[in-house]
Design a protein that fits this description.
This protein has about 110 residues and is of the alpha+beta class. Helices cover about 40% and strands about 20% of the residues.
Amino acid sequence: MPDYFKSIIYTIRTRDCIYVGSTTDFRRRKWQHKSRIKTNNSKKLYKTIRDNDYEWDMKPYKQFPCESKIQLIIEEERVRRELKADINQRKCFLNFQSIEDFKIIKGL
């Protein structure tokens, strides 16, 4: 079970582009991204990295200790919007129009 008190919001940058993600295990998540760059053809992130001569940098953006995946996803989406992440293919949560809708439905 993930320890959400160890949550991190991170960015991946490739020249002029940015991706925002979140994890409870930064080292493992970085390894996962690295291993998918050459093999995953369906994700915009990995195609962008390949198109930029494999130049990419993944760094923690901020620590975000929280109690649940829902809290982490809400913060990830807030940061994604704040930084105007252009590699993310979709919102950090699906089927909701806004963070406010998501909070209402989840009772936050």
